[in-house]
Write the C-alpha coordinates for this entry.
Amino acid sequence: MSSTKTAYNFVLDLIFPKICSGCGKFGEIVCADCQNQIKIIQTPTCPKCGKITPSGQFCKSCKDESLLTGLLISADYRRGPVKEMIHHLKYSGQRELALPLAKLLVSRLKISKLRGQIVVVPVPLHIHRQRLRGFNQSELLARAVCTKLNLAGANALKRIKFKKTQVESKGKERRENLIGAFKCVDGEIIKNKTIVLVDDVSTTGATLEECAKVLRLAGARQVWGLVVARG
Ligand SMILES: [Zn+2]
Ligand SMILES: [Zn+2]
Protein backbone atom coordinates (compact mmCIF):
# COMPACT_ATOMS: atom_id res chain seq x y z
CA MET A 1 0.00 0.00 0.00
CA SER A 2 1.33 3.45 -0.85
CA SER A 3 2.13 5.82 1.97
CA THR A 4 -0.56 8.24 0.75
CA LYS A 5 -3.11 5.45 0.98
CA THR A 6 -1.88 4.46 4.43
CA ALA A 7 -2.07 8.07 5.62
CA TYR A 8 -5.52 8.39 4.11
CA ASN A 9 -6.70 5.24 5.90
CA PHE A 10 -5.14 6.49 9.12
CA VAL A 11 -7.15 9.71 8.87
CA LEU A 12 -10.29 7.76 7.99
CA ASP A 13 -9.80 5.56 11.05
CA LEU A 14 -9.60 8.68 13.20
CA ILE A 15 -12.83 10.07 11.80
CA PHE A 16 -14.66 6.75 11.49
CA PRO A 17 -12.92 4.36 13.85
CA LYS A 18 -13.46 0.68 13.08
CA ILE A 19 -15.58 -0.96 15.72
CA CYS A 20 -15.85 -4.70 16.29
CA SER A 21 -19.32 -5.96 15.40
CA GLY A 22 -19.19 -8.47 18.21
CA CYS A 23 -17.92 -6.59 21.25
CA GLY A 24 -17.76 -2.93 20.23
CA LYS A 25 -14.00 -2.66 20.78
CA PHE A 26 -12.18 -0.12 18.56
CA GLY A 27 -9.68 -1.23 15.95
CA GLU A 28 -11.18 -3.95 13.72
CA ILE A 29 -14.56 -4.67 12.13
CA VAL A 30 -14.31 -8.07 13.83
CA CYS A 31 -11.63 -8.43 16.49
CA ALA A 32 -9.56 -11.60 16.84
CA ASP A 33 -11.29 -12.59 20.09
CA CYS A 34 -14.73 -12.44 18.49
CA GLN A 35 -13.51 -14.14 15.33
CA ASN A 36 -12.20 -17.04 17.42
CA GLN A 37 -15.65 -17.61 18.84
CA ILE A 38 -17.06 -18.47 15.41
CA LYS A 39 -17.03 -22.18 14.73
CA ILE A 40 -17.59 -23.53 11.23
CA ILE A 41 -20.09 -26.38 11.21
CA GLN A 42 -18.04 -29.41 10.20
CA THR A 43 -20.59 -32.22 10.20
CA PRO A 44 -22.71 -32.45 7.06
CA THR A 45 -26.30 -33.27 8.01
CA CYS A 46 -29.71 -33.48 6.37
CA PRO A 47 -31.19 -29.96 6.73
CA LYS A 48 -34.56 -31.41 7.71
CA CYS A 49 -33.98 -34.23 10.20
CA GLY A 50 -30.31 -33.76 11.12
CA LYS A 51 -29.16 -37.21 10.02
CA ILE A 52 -25.54 -37.24 8.80
CA THR A 53 -25.31 -37.30 4.98
CA PRO A 54 -22.13 -37.26 2.81
CA SER A 55 -22.18 -33.57 1.80
CA GLY A 56 -25.11 -32.13 3.72
CA GLN A 57 -27.77 -33.14 1.22
CA PHE A 58 -31.29 -34.15 2.21
CA CYS A 59 -31.45 -37.77 3.34
CA LYS A 60 -33.50 -40.39 1.47
CA SER A 61 -36.59 -39.90 3.63
CA CYS A 62 -36.55 -36.09 3.47
CA LYS A 63 -35.41 -35.50 -0.08
CA ASP A 64 -38.86 -35.62 -1.71
CA GLU A 65 -39.99 -32.67 0.38
CA SER A 66 -37.41 -30.28 -1.03
CA LEU A 67 -36.26 -28.92 -4.36
CA LEU A 68 -32.90 -28.10 -2.86
CA THR A 69 -30.30 -30.83 -3.07
CA GLY A 70 -28.95 -29.77 0.30
CA LEU A 71 -28.41 -26.81 2.55
CA LEU A 72 -24.97 -25.83 3.77
CA ILE A 73 -25.11 -23.82 6.97
CA SER A 74 -21.73 -22.31 7.78
CA ALA A 75 -21.93 -21.31 11.44
CA ASP A 76 -24.15 -20.99 14.46
CA TYR A 77 -26.24 -17.81 14.33
CA ARG A 78 -25.98 -17.14 18.04
CA ARG A 79 -22.39 -18.10 18.66
CA GLY A 80 -19.85 -15.29 18.63
CA PRO A 81 -20.52 -12.20 16.51
CA VAL A 82 -22.27 -13.92 13.54
CA LYS A 83 -25.72 -12.47 14.14
CA GLU A 84 -24.33 -8.97 14.74
CA MET A 85 -22.10 -9.13 11.67
CA ILE A 86 -25.04 -10.03 9.44
CA HIS A 87 -27.15 -7.35 11.05
CA HIS A 88 -24.53 -4.64 10.60
CA LEU A 89 -23.95 -5.67 7.00
CA LYS A 90 -27.64 -5.50 6.13
CA TYR A 91 -28.99 -2.69 8.21
CA SER A 92 -25.99 -0.44 8.91
CA GLY A 93 -24.54 -0.67 5.43
CA GLN A 94 -21.20 -2.05 6.61
CA ARG A 95 -20.31 -3.65 3.29
CA GLU A 96 -16.80 -4.54 4.44
CA LEU A 97 -18.35 -7.21 6.67
CA ALA A 98 -19.21 -9.21 3.54
CA LEU A 99 -15.59 -10.36 3.37
CA PRO A 100 -15.25 -12.03 6.79
CA LEU A 101 -18.76 -13.48 6.36
CA ALA A 102 -17.89 -14.86 2.92
CA LYS A 103 -14.88 -16.57 4.49
CA LEU A 104 -17.31 -18.61 6.58
CA LEU A 105 -19.20 -19.60 3.43
CA VAL A 106 -15.95 -20.56 1.72
CA SER A 107 -14.88 -22.76 4.65
CA ARG A 108 -18.25 -24.51 4.66
CA LEU A 109 -18.29 -24.98 0.89
CA LYS A 110 -14.82 -26.51 0.94
CA ILE A 111 -15.92 -29.13 3.47
CA SER A 112 -18.75 -30.28 1.20
CA LYS A 113 -16.68 -31.02 -1.90
CA LEU A 114 -19.57 -30.56 -4.32
CA ARG A 115 -19.34 -32.19 -7.70
CA GLY A 116 -20.08 -30.88 -11.16
CA GLN A 117 -19.59 -27.49 -12.71
CA ILE A 118 -20.46 -24.97 -10.03
CA VAL A 119 -22.18 -21.65 -10.64
CA VAL A 120 -22.70 -19.37 -7.64
CA VAL A 121 -25.99 -17.47 -7.68
CA PRO A 122 -27.06 -14.92 -5.06
CA VAL A 123 -30.64 -14.75 -3.79
CA PRO A 124 -31.81 -11.49 -5.35
CA LEU A 125 -33.47 -8.54 -3.69
CA HIS A 126 -36.27 -6.72 -5.39
CA ILE A 127 -34.86 -3.69 -7.21
CA HIS A 128 -36.80 -1.34 -4.89
CA ARG A 129 -35.26 -2.86 -1.79
CA GLN A 130 -31.83 -2.99 -3.37
CA ARG A 131 -32.07 0.72 -4.19
CA LEU A 132 -33.07 1.50 -0.62
CA ARG A 133 -30.20 -0.53 0.82
CA GLY A 134 -27.73 0.42 -1.87
CA PHE A 135 -26.60 -3.17 -2.42
CA ASN A 136 -27.67 -6.79 -2.19
CA GLN A 137 -25.79 -8.41 0.71
CA SER A 138 -26.16 -11.88 -0.87
CA GLU A 139 -24.56 -10.63 -4.05
CA LEU A 140 -21.60 -9.21 -2.09
CA LEU A 141 -21.20 -12.58 -0.36
CA ALA A 142 -21.54 -14.53 -3.62
CA ARG A 143 -18.98 -12.33 -5.38
CA ALA A 144 -16.47 -12.79 -2.56
CA VAL A 145 -16.97 -16.58 -2.62
CA CYS A 146 -16.38 -16.65 -6.40
CA THR A 147 -13.20 -14.60 -6.05
CA LYS A 148 -11.84 -16.73 -3.20
CA LEU A 149 -12.51 -20.08 -4.88
CA ASN A 150 -12.22 -18.99 -8.49
CA LEU A 151 -15.76 -20.11 -9.29
CA ALA A 152 -18.21 -18.89 -11.90
CA GLY A 153 -21.03 -16.69 -10.66
CA ALA A 154 -24.11 -15.05 -12.12
CA ASN A 155 -27.04 -12.89 -11.12
CA ALA A 156 -29.24 -15.52 -12.72
CA LEU A 157 -32.33 -14.77 -10.65
CA LYS A 158 -34.45 -11.68 -10.43
CA ARG A 159 -36.98 -10.87 -7.75
CA ILE A 160 -40.14 -9.70 -9.47
CA LYS A 161 -42.53 -9.43 -6.54
CA PHE A 162 -42.09 -6.71 -3.96
CA LYS A 163 -43.59 -7.61 -0.62
CA LYS A 164 -43.17 -6.82 3.03
CA THR A 165 -39.88 -7.95 4.54
CA GLN A 166 -39.66 -11.51 5.78
CA VAL A 167 -39.56 -10.25 9.35
CA GLU A 168 -42.91 -8.52 8.91
CA SER A 169 -44.77 -11.51 7.49
CA LYS A 170 -45.06 -14.89 9.14
CA GLY A 171 -45.18 -18.59 8.20
CA LYS A 172 -47.89 -19.39 5.70
CA GLU A 173 -48.24 -15.79 4.55
CA ARG A 174 -44.50 -15.69 3.93
CA ARG A 175 -44.57 -18.80 1.76
CA GLU A 176 -47.56 -17.55 -0.21
CA ASN A 177 -45.87 -14.20 -0.78
CA LEU A 178 -42.93 -16.00 -2.30
CA ILE A 179 -44.84 -17.93 -4.94
CA GLY A 180 -43.87 -16.45 -8.29
CA ALA A 181 -41.49 -14.01 -6.59
CA PHE A 182 -38.45 -15.05 -8.63
CA LYS A 183 -37.62 -15.41 -12.28
CA CYS A 184 -34.59 -16.94 -13.97
CA VAL A 185 -32.98 -14.37 -16.25
CA ASP A 186 -30.00 -16.42 -17.42
CA GLY A 187 -31.09 -19.94 -18.33
CA GLU A 188 -28.02 -20.58 -20.46
CA ILE A 189 -25.58 -20.39 -17.56
CA ILE A 190 -27.80 -22.52 -15.28
CA LYS A 191 -28.39 -25.49 -17.54
CA ASN A 192 -26.94 -28.79 -16.21
CA LYS A 193 -24.88 -26.96 -13.60
CA THR A 194 -24.49 -27.43 -9.87
CA ILE A 195 -25.91 -24.22 -8.49
CA VAL A 196 -24.73 -22.82 -5.18
CA LEU A 197 -27.46 -20.45 -4.07
CA VAL A 198 -26.07 -17.91 -1.63
CA ASP A 199 -28.00 -16.05 1.05
CA ASP A 200 -26.99 -14.46 4.34
CA VAL A 201 -29.50 -16.24 6.57
CA SER A 202 -32.12 -18.88 6.08
CA THR A 203 -34.98 -18.98 8.55
CA THR A 204 -37.67 -21.33 7.22
CA GLY A 205 -35.85 -22.12 3.99
CA ALA A 206 -38.88 -20.91 2.03
CA THR A 207 -36.91 -18.35 -0.01
CA LEU A 208 -34.24 -20.88 -0.97
CA GLU A 209 -36.93 -23.43 -1.88
CA GLU A 210 -38.72 -20.97 -4.14
CA CYS A 211 -35.44 -20.01 -5.84
CA ALA A 212 -34.53 -23.70 -6.20
CA LYS A 213 -37.85 -24.34 -7.92
CA VAL A 214 -37.15 -21.64 -10.50
CA LEU A 215 -33.56 -22.82 -11.06
CA ARG A 216 -34.62 -26.45 -11.47
CA LEU A 217 -37.22 -25.44 -14.01
CA ALA A 218 -34.46 -23.57 -15.85
CA GLY A 219 -32.48 -26.82 -16.06
CA ALA A 220 -30.11 -26.77 -13.07
CA ARG A 221 -28.78 -30.23 -12.24
CA GLN A 222 -28.49 -29.63 -8.51
CA VAL A 223 -29.27 -26.63 -6.31
CA TRP A 224 -27.44 -26.28 -3.01
CA GLY A 225 -28.28 -23.57 -0.54
CA LEU A 226 -25.27 -21.92 1.10
CA VAL A 227 -25.94 -19.58 3.99
CA VAL A 228 -23.92 -18.04 6.77
CA ALA A 229 -26.34 -19.24 9.42
CA ARG A 230 -29.83 -20.42 10.16
CA GLY A 231 -31.71 -17.54 11.75
ZN1 LIG B 1 -14.77 -8.18 19.28
ZN1 LIG C 1 -33.58 -36.12 6.63
In short: Strands lie at 70-75, 118-122, 152-153, 157-159, 182-184, 194-202, 222-230.
